[in-house]
Amino acid sequence: MDKAESSYVLEARNLKKSYGKGENSVAALKDVSFAVKPGEFVAILGPSGSGKSTLLNMLGLMDQPDSGDVFIAGKKTLALKEEARALLRNEKLGFVFQFDALLSEFTILENILFPALISTRAKKASYSEARKRALGLLEHLGLLQIAERYPSQVSGGERQRAALCRALMNQPDIILADEPTGNLDKANGEMVFKDLEALARQRLTAVILVTHNEEAALKAFRVFHMQDGALSEVLGVQS
């Protein structure tokens, strides 16, 4: 990769993906290419069935394209073995979904710690250091008071913001957010959007938000629109 390309923290090149065969084949991604730099907050808009989730699965290394490739920090990922892909996901990517997916039998703090416990970094850092970092994330988002509570004991907005803390636990370069406010009321949704925007501006974390909510895209620095598997950038968006 040349110098210009190496500045991208994530790049999708000519991604194509179809499901089914023959006459029943459906093109989910049609030659999709785009790139994101550190500190960019990108929104991908589009109706249900447009290919947004398929694209997010590719970017998150949870599925593979029929052709094309995804580069994470300049590294090609298509040819990597699953173990190497899993390691890259754990160290470079953080995920936030519509439903928080917190484990009910563990406290909020324990849920946030899980990424560090399964990371190779955990072998180099003590549990106390990981715990200190988790508590710092909770404090940063104003959630320190719920650290020892269980998910059933806190609000939906608090759970979703705790899920964001969990996504940040391994200090990823990229956050992939799939309809992260779809299960929240407007006030809590606004708080999550502000958190994501602050991540990009203050921590230089690249944030890729997939949504069908046009109002949500107003927080983003760049906006793309997806329709029938094709991706195009919406020009004129102000950061």
Q: What does this protein structure show overall?
A:
Helix content is 33%, strand content 25%. The chain has 239 residues and is an alpha/beta fold. The chain has a single domain, classed as Rossmann fold, CATH 3.40.50.300. Strand 7 (174-178), helix 7 (186-203) and strand 8 form a beta-alpha-beta unit. Helix 4 (108-118) packs across helix 5.
Task: Provide a compact summary of the structure.
With 239 residues, this protein is of the alpha/beta class. It is built from seven helices and ten strands.
Key words describing this protein structure:
239 residues, alpha/beta, Rossmann fold, 6-stranded mixed beta sheet, 4-stranded antiparallel beta sheet, 25% strand, globular, disordered N terminus
* Shape assignment: globular
CATH topology: Rossmann fold
Structure class: alpha/beta
C-alpha termini separation = 28 Å
Largest sheet: 6 strands, mixed
CATH class: Alpha Beta
Structural Rg: 18 Å
> Number of DSSP helices?
7
What is the chains' assembly state? Answer: single chain
Order of helices and strands: HEEEHEEHEHHHEHEEE
What is the H level of CATH, i.e. the homologous superfamily?
P-loop containing nucleotide triphosphate hydrolases
If you average the pLDDT, what whole number results? 87
- As a percent range, the share of helical residues equals 25-40%
User: Do you know the CATH architecture?
Assistant: 3-Layer(aba) Sandwich
Q: Strand arrangement, largest sheet?
A: 6-7-8-3-9-10
Measured by DSSP, the beta-strand proportion falls in 25-35%
Number of strands: 10
Unreliable stretches (pLDDT < 50, length at least 5) are 1-5
